[in-house]
Amino acid sequence: MMSRYISSATAIVAFVLVVKVRCDVLTPSDVWKQLPDLYEYDDFEDCRRGNPNYLYCVVKAHIKENSSSVVWKQISQYSSDPRHYRRDILELGICLDRCHPSTETGNQTELVKRCATDRVRLRYQLTSSARIWNCASLDTFNQPIGRILETIFILTCAVILLTVVTSTAVDLGWIQFKKNVITNSFSLSRNLDKFGALNHRSRQDLMFLDGIRAITMMVILLCHASIPMIRFPLKNPESIEQQFDNFWFPIAMSGNTYTVQMFFILGGVMVAISVLDHMKNHPELKLAFLWERIMNRLIRLLPVYAFVILFQASWYQRLQDGPIAYRYKDHCRENWWTNLLFVNNYIRANEPCTQFTWYLGADFQLFLLGTVIMMLIWRFPSFTRHIMVVMVAFALIVPAAVIYVYKLDATVMMIVRYVINEIRDLEYYLRVYITFESNAGNYFFGMIAGIVCHNISENAKKLNSVKNLKSMLLLATTFFIVMNTMTVLLPRDQLNEHSLQLALFGSLLKSSWGILAAYIILYLKLRPQSLVVSLLRHPVMLVTAKLSYCVYVVQYSVVYAIYRNVTAPLMSNAYTTILFTSSILFITFLVSFLLHVCIEMPCMSLFKDLLNRSKQWKAHSAPSKQHSAPCEGLFESKEIDSKATCN
Fold first, then answer.
1. How high is the pLDDT of residue 462?
2. Quick one: pLDDT at residue 590?
3. Whole-model pTM?
4. By the 8 A CB rule, do 419 and 227 touch?
5. What is the rounded distance in angstroms from the CA atom of residue 332 to the CA atom of residue 344?
6. Alpha carbons 184 and 601: distance in angstroms, whole number
7. How confident is the model at residue 458, as a pLDDT?
8. What is the predicted pLDDT for the residue at 625?
9. Which of 49, 184, 440, 473 pairs with 401 at a CA distance of 20 to 30 A?
10. How far is CA 71 from CA 28, 67, 497, in A?
């Protein structure tokens, strides 16, 4: 039976690839050599060294139609393919000193525009209109320090550093001072010991999830390190176009698009298991349980998050050196509050503060919904199966409905003409990729997997009910491969019309990731001695997973700060990719480690201690059965002490 599924899937995949390769053979790949250079920049360093009062502007030259020009015909034909850059819009970096004699007077911006149109006319015999995107001068990079937010950030760093150093000295006995909750929480020696500890999860049978989390985080960081290259001025932009034209590119982009779904799946697993574990010792449902979970969640997320947002709103603006930095804008000064309220995936989502953190907004919303659903199961256990059916139906119907109603693509279409500006402006990104309701499906699949995992742990006899798990895993794998391979058949451009086929395919494609991941988690749960589980439980994986939250929060700052300091077009090749990626990885993990041991762990320990003291005070004033604070979710802490445990 299963061999028939595999054979059919293989045949489908082979047919798709053969057809696609045949189509690619018929497509010319060297027409770009006859076209105008897409990016042409004067040397910025020479410009500012040659004149202290320099002016350097980036100009968009829009070529006007000229039916008698052979070059224009080539431009028009080539640009008609949406997977190619628009060659009728040239980007020029203009140093004013290289355009006109110093004796020429007039409005400087007008002189720059005239220079751009003159260059296009002289080199390609085509007329154009010019629009200035950005200008840089001495004043751009020499603004005095003293803004309020910058001062606040410096003071915050000083307070944190002083607290960590003092607490460490007191804890090690270098300073004679009575230890207290602050010195214990911020002691660097204690936090380093906790960081290296491996027994950080009370559910030892689920430690392999940390390995999955670490691998997922690394893949996402690698993707985010290379994506800005698409929008960067390149000496060889045709290399990007050639990648987009490869038959395997849609498959690769499917992986890039849906890797983040692993985080939602893991979050759903941990929400379900943590609530069910809590229910064993606390059969009585109390609404205070939800409040405790929210407080523990905020304690875990907000300190590091707020610190990074403060940096983005202040000093990030200074991390620029040249006219290219304007491409990577951030809106933390205006929209920071959408992040701290975890609504940044809905409110002003096209002008985000730290764009990658849309996930934190969606995940927090799903955490609340997932907890409420588990509380319903707690209150009405006989309706568990009905609730699970509703969750599966929601996972399949809602994304399809959104895609159909808004005439969207089946998935993120990495089409050059759309992503060269801002992917955050794509309607699919705003309505499907980052929204709570469209990501709920895979979160629900994770919750269902968590419920099954818990039942397996609670009753060994129920192992018989999953005896066909291997066959189901093979079927889910086949479904996953077929759905992702079929992305090569998607339209090359947006259709802008209702398409039931695209809607259904988009929903099934996204669900294939959640279904496969859920079965993999169940399969690994039942084989704790397997080689894969051993690798996922390796100490390197367990320690790296502890940095996952800080890595996710800080990666935007690191990635774009590096690109904002490049002053000339790059060559897109393996050397450039390795250079930028290695730099981003090193800086990201270094900064994440410092944030983890100096802010994340200390604040979590401090605030949880204060919460426990508050609960103890309430217990004395109104005796009640006290329970431990639950720990769940993708980025929940797994540190355990004598006062707070994760059931």
1. 53
2. 97
3. 0.87
4. no
5. 11
6. 11
7. 66
8. 45
9. 473
10. 17, 9, 34
Interatomic CA distance for residues 608 and 181, integer angstroms: 11
Quick check: 56 and 47 in contact, CB under 8 A?
Answer: yes
**How do residues 594-620 score in pLDDT, each as one tens digit?**
999 999 999 999 998 888 887 777 666
Q: Model confidence over 189-227: pLDDT tens digits?
A: 999 999 988 766 667 888 999 999 999 999 999 999 988
Query: What are the strands of the beta sheet with 128-137, ordered from one edge?
Result: 39-41, 89-95, 55-63, 128-137
Domain ranges in the chain? 32-141, 148-186, 194-610
- Rounded Cα distance between 4 and 46, Å, is 66
**Token code pair at residue 115:** 């220079």
Look at strands 55-63 and 89-95 and give their pairing: antiparallel
For 533-557, how does the pLDDT look when each residue is reduced to its tens digit (9 = 90+)?
A: 999 999 999 999 999 999 999 999 9
Q: How far apart are CA 390 and CA 444, in angstroms?
A: 10
Please give the span between the terminal C-alpha atoms of the chain, in angstroms, as a whole number: 41
Beta bridge partners of 137: 55
DSSP string, 184-253: HHH-HHHHHHHHH-S---S-GGGTHHHHHHHHHHHHHHHHHHHGGGGGS-BS-THHHHHHHHSTTHHHHH
Mean per-residue pLDDT, 128-150: 84
Q: Extract the runs of DSSP E, i.e. beta strands, from 325-431.
A: none
DSSP classification of residue 64: P
CA dist 573 and 243 (Å) reads 12
Taking the CA atoms of 525, 527, 532 and 535 in sequence, report the sign of the dihedral they define.
Answer: positive
